[in-house]
Write a structure and sequence with these properties.
Layout (H helix, E strand, L loop, with lengths): L3 E4 L2 E4 L4 E7 L7 E8 L6 E6 L6 E3 L7 E6 L4 E6 L8 E9 L12 E2 L3 E6 L1
Parallel strand pairs: 2-11
Antiparallel strand pairs: 1-3, 3-8, 4-5, 4-9, 5-6, 7-8, 9-10, 9-11
């Protein structure tokens, strides 16, 4: 069982930056692939970035490539999402998710555990 708690969301102007953090409970964090998903009102939940359990594989959706960076610190049981050059279309609730022994896919249904989400709002 893994519990995930996100933080770092907020209101930022277009062009600004935010760093999201997700802290996981338990001692086996390094065995989990971690993903960051987002869901805007009226839209499906979408994976924006993911990192495999060994951190050797990462995924980014095309719309965030070059702007967002996912990283993990296994010693701190934490995964990060650094978001730069934010755009109004990045506005959404951002969720982190964990997939045991996963490789870091974009498929929502690969992930067994989810956080409660943190709101990111980008004003124009």
């Amino acid at each position: 069982q893994v519990q995930l708690v996100e933080s770092g969301g907020g209101l930022v102007q277009a062009g600004g930056s935010l760093r999201l953090s997700c802290v996981a409970s338990g001692s086996t964090f390094s065995r989990y692939a971690m993903g960051w998903f987002r869901q805007a009102p009226g839209k499906e939940r979408q994976c924006v970035a993911a990192i495999g359990w060994g951190a050797g594989r990462t995924f980014y959706v095309d719309s965030v490539k070059g702007r967002f960076t996912i990283s993990r610190d296994n010693a701190k049981n934490t995964v990060y999402l650094q978001m730069n050059s934010l755009k109004p279309e990045d506005t959404a609730v951002y969720y982190c998710a964990a997939d045991y022994w996963g490789i870091g896919t974009a498929r929502r249904y690969d992930y067994e555990y989810w956080g409660q989400g943190t709101q990111v709002t980008v004003s124009s």
